[in-house]
Amino acid sequence: MTDHNDVSGDSPVTTRRGVRSFVLRQGRMTEGQKKAYDRSWPKYGLTREQGMIDPRQIFGRDNMLNLEIGFGMGKSLADMAEAAPEQDFIGVEVHLPGVGALLKEIEDRGLENVRVYAIDANDVIDRCLPDAALDRVMVFFPDPWHKKRHHKRRLIQHEFVQRLRHKLRVGGILHLATDWENYAEHMMEIMGESEGFANSQDIGEYSPRREDRPITKFEKRGETLGHGVWDLVFYRTN
After folding, report:
1. Using one digit for the tens of pLDDT, what is the confidence trace for 96-139?
2. Where does the sequence pass through the membrane (predicted)?
3. Closest to 93 in 3D by CA, of 133, 149, 165, 33
4. Is 131 annotated as catalytic?
5. Where are the alpha helices (DSSP H) in 45-147?
6. Which of 49, 130, 136, 137 is 20 to 30 Å from 63 at the Cα level?
């Protein structure tokens, strides 16, 4: 399986028009990722065509619900799910090798508290998740689109944050992280101006890395090279 459409028939990766925060560079799944996908997608995969989900029905329980947008190759999400079996996790990723890699992690670790979307996060937010369903949303190291002319492609924008707010319960957390200082400043400006959110730190201050955010191999390499990492933790106030 190499065609992204195989995830759900002929369903496109996104139904939204206009500027996108991602570019599909699918590549090919490894044999191990493909086999894990073929075995486990029917059990752990979620699709746009299912419509608005009931998380209690999906997971068979009513526990803390986390959403990670853009989980990459899935190791950090698997680490979090394994460390917190009493919580439930939904991951969103448009790149199929990453989806296959996460499904392999799920199999290898015997995780039952993870479900996966392989579509645009905007569609997940608008078409699949009920309001006030989430306890935490995580966006770790999104594409910084570092060239100024591409800043409009950055995922963290006022309109996106407000749609996320409605999916969080009051008191729920939005946790952002980036290793690009300019993007960190952009995130802080957006969040500081966003209705219904308050900084978990003093106004304008970044957060220490929470213990429940795993340090990725990419992040470790950056630290070795002297790169900074900035975390922002805001919570919904209304």
Report:
1. 999 999 999 999 999 999 999 999 999 999 999 999 999 999 99
2. none
3. 33
4. no
5. 55-59, 75-83, 96-109, 121-123
6. 49
